[in-house]
């Protein structure tokens, strides 16, 4: 176990050659070109597999918020236009991918009450792209696989009993001790970066706090935080509330300039059409 941890940390130390905007060390083994290609390819596949909303009012609302958010994304993160697609699905989710792609499921619009709450979702998702979290997660998975291989070989050369159980235990240790906390740190960072981005784009940052209160009502039976890839709703609410001292001035500056977005949420979001052969 000690050898495994030593190898894992050595690999991480060698690879941690950059830092995020919040000052956190990052592991990045892939180039931006590779990540952009992966993002674009994945997005094209999703467009083929998931129905796309054709409701004009819904699309206008989502695109209005997206345009305001992406206009404040630095060119270093993405050059050119962003492609935004509204997927006709009850799934309560949204995402942004390297390569300038944003997907919003109509299900999330049932939770977001106005333009500001949708901006909190989009800001968060674009925050993942800004901080290159996809690169980190792919890199972490690659390093954990290497570490597991080394540990398995090392155990194979010893007289330890129940080697299979040891390897399985190491796998759980990586999952709960490295990958999940690593993912939670990404989510927390995206929350903060996203709150700043939405505020700079003219959206009320306080809405991000209310959004997670709405989310909390939908996830009463979530797993304990240490067993989840996401922080608990209460943790997110507390972190976002504390960060308002930083983000609120950005919003007030936009408000003073009179450049606040005017994105109107439709009174009715059409329910996803039933797909033949599916319930």
Outline of this structure?
The chain has 279 residues and is mainly alpha-helical. The protein has eight helices and five strands; from the N terminus they run H-E-E-H-H-E-E-E-H-H-H-H-H.
Q: pLDDT under 50 segments (min length 5)?
A: 147-160, 162-181
Secondary structure tally, helices: 8
| Cα end-to-end separation | 48 Å
Strands in their spatial order, largest beta sheet:
3-5-4
Large-scale geometry? globular
Largest sheet: 3 strands, mixed
Polypeptide structure, described:
By secondary structure, the chain is mainly α. Helices cover 58% and strands 6% of the residues. The protein has helices spanning 2-15, 32-49, 56-70, 115-130, 133-156, 163-200, 206-218, 233-257, and strands at residues 18-19, 25-26, 83-87, 94-97, 101-105. It has a three-stranded mixed sheet with strand order 3-5-4, sandwiched between helices. The model is unreliable at 147-160 and 162-181 (pLDDT under 50).
Which SSEs are present, and which pair or pack?
Blueprint: H1 2-15, E1 18-19, E2 25-26, H2 32-49, H3 56-70, E3 83-87, E4 94-97, E5 101-105, H4 115-130, H5 133-156, H6 163-200, H7 206-218, H8 233-257
Parallel strand pairs: 3-5
Antiparallel strand pairs: 1-2, 4-5
Helix pairs in contact: 1-5, 3-4, 4-6, 4-7, 5-6, 6-8, 7-8
């Amino acid at each position: 176990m000690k050898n495994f941890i030593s190898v894992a940390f050595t690999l991480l130390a060698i690879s941690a050659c950059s830092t995020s905007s919040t000052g956190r060390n990052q592991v990045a083994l892939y180039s931006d070109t590779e990540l952009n290609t992966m993002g674009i390819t994945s997005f094209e596949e999703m467009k083929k597999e998931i129905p796309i909303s054709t409701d004009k009012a819904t699309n206008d609302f989502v695109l209005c918020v997206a345009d305001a958010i992406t206009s404040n994304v630095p060119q270093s993160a993405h050059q050119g236009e962003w492609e935004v697609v509204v997927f006709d699905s009850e799934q309560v989710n949204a995402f942004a991918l390297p390569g300038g792609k944003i997907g919003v499921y109509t299900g999330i619009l049932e939770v977001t009450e106005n333009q500001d709450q949708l901006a909190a979702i989009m800001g968060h998702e674009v925050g993942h792209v800004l901080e290159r979290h996809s690169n980190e997660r792919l890199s972490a998975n690659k390093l954990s696989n290497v570490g597991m291989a080394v540990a398995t070989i090392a155990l194979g050369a010893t007289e330890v009993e129940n080697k299979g159980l040891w390897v399985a235990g190491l796998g759980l240790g990586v999952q709960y001790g490295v990958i999940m906390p690593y993912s939670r740190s990404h989510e927390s960072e995206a929350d903060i970066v996203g709150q700043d981005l939405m505020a700079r784009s003219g959206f009320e940052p306080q809405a991000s706090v209310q959004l997670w209160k709405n989310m909390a009502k939908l996830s009463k039976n979530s797993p304990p935080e240490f067993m989840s890839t996401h922080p608990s709703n209460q943790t997110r609410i507390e972190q976002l509330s504390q960060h308002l001292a930083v983000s609120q001035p950005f919003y007030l500056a936009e408000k003073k300039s009179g450049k606040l977005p005017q994105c109107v949420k439709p009174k009715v979001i059409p329910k996803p059409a039933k797909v033949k052969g599916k319930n």
